[in-house]
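Most newcomers find our protein records easier to grasp once they have seen one. The structure tokens are whole numbers drawn from a learned vocabulary of backbone shapes. The record below serves as our worked example for the rest of this section.
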Amino acid sequence: MTSAHHPDPSEPAPPQRGLTREERGRDVSEAQAEAEAQRSKWQQFLHMMSPRLVWSMAEGYPVVLKQFIQFCLILIYPAWVFAVLVGGLFQLAFYVTVYPLLWLLFWPVRAHQKKNNPVEYAANRAKYANKKWYET
């Protein structure tokens, strides 16, 4: 039986303890971190269409796999841009059509809150006063 303090020289060293998820931090590429740092939705949409962000999705893979994944991403890049644009149009269509309809539909609720809870209503209006409609 061998001692734990004196391992056999032909044996490999015991493995080191790995890092926990908290110690490693987030596994996010630089391009994705930039996309998340954008303030407005429109800037995020524009950044989502950048080739740099799309190609960064292949980071972290071995070289040959990374090259193959980047090749596939180059092939689907036009479809990616189209999908992002269509998603932006759908979001715009929602805010132009559905959002005003919901605003009108829930008008009695807002009027009731304004009449019966004016302090809470004013506090809520002040909370969202400086935000744009697409940032809420």
